[in-house]
Amino acid sequence: MINHGRGILVWLGVSDLAKTCDFYAETLGLEMMHMDMQSGWAEFIHPNCQTRIAFVETDPDEIQPSGGASLVFDVPDLEESMKKLEKAGVPFLTGIISMNGHSFATFIDPDGNNLQLREYQDE
User: 15-28: per-residue pLDDT in tens?
Assistant: First the structure.
């Protein structure tokens, strides 16, 4: 049923589309595919795995950060990636947590959405 698509698109409501676009492009390094300020929509793609993330500008009172979900970005060196993001002013909610053979750290985007770094292990 779902195996005929191009992949997965996740979208989040955000309060300031320009600020969000700057964070995801400049701070995290995702590639912008499309931005329409008039309709309040922007779409990004991860350069290595083609996962797409979209953002729609939403009334700040209607934004419900995370809702129990987190976007997880795999990185080869968790500590180095954390240092780079912290230097860019990105707030982390946790330090490094080990679970199920992986190491994670949770941080937030400008609207308080939970994001995680996960150090991947080459198999």
Answer: 999 999 999 999 99
